[in-house]
Design a protein that fits this description.
The chain has a single domain, classed as 2,3-Dihydroxybiphenyl 1,2-Dioxygenase, domain 1, CATH 3.10.180. 28% of the residues lie in helices and 35% in strands. It has a ten-stranded mixed sheet. A hairpin with a 5-residue loop joins strand 8 and strand 9. The longest helix has 12 residues. It is globular and about 45 Å long.
Length: 166
């Protein structure tokens, strides 16, 4: 069987959405004995260059990330505006949002996921400016979304990169 994702063996995180970030992350910290992680935010509009539902969008969220040896566990509290985070939270309530895979070629993997019936819902740049993310629909088979994370430091040359060089 051919894999949809070319390098789909790099599962990086599992994410949950919540209405109350500190409460959910606090509960998880007590469960595991881990310290409460620092608060971070989605990138501002100009930096994020977010696309949601096919259009430029202002999307925001607050994030806390627990790091384990083999995977990260992320909690997201979405802002009030429509986004992949807000929509799933409103439809299903607090709970599982996505699994995230590292990709070295977001362009290729986007094409492959869309060919397999998983439409692009939202994408944007990281707050750190070191890469980008994209969410794809998979609720019918996964109960949540698929996220791809592409880091500038290890991405492959892609068609759009080759075009810039010409």
């Amino acid at each position: 069987m051919n894999a949809i994702l070319g390098g789909g063996t790099h599962l990086l995180q599992i994410c949950f959405v919540t209405h109350t970030l500190e409460e959910s992350a606090g509960w998880f910290a007590r469960l595991t004995g881990l310290p409460l992680p620092p608060l971070s935010y989605a990138a501002e509009r100009d930096k994020a260059q977010a696309i949601y539902d096919g259009r430029p969008a202002r999307v925001g969220c607050r994030i806390m990330m627990f790091h384990f040896d083999n995977i990260d566990l992320e909690f997201i509290e979405p802002g009030p505006e429509p986004s992949a985070w807000r929509d799933l939270l409103e439809r299903k309530g607090p709970g599982f949002h996505h699994i995230a895979f590292k990709t070295r070629n977001l362009t290729r993997d986007t094409v492959e996921l869309e060919k397999a019936g998983h439409s692009l819902i939202q994408r944007g740049e990281f707050q750190s400016g070191t890469g980008r993310y994209a969410y794809f629909g998979a609720e019918d088979v996964l109960g949540g979304l698929i996220e791809l994370l592409e880091y500038d430091r290890d991405k492959e040359k892609q068609n759009r990169d080759k075009e810039k060089q010409n």
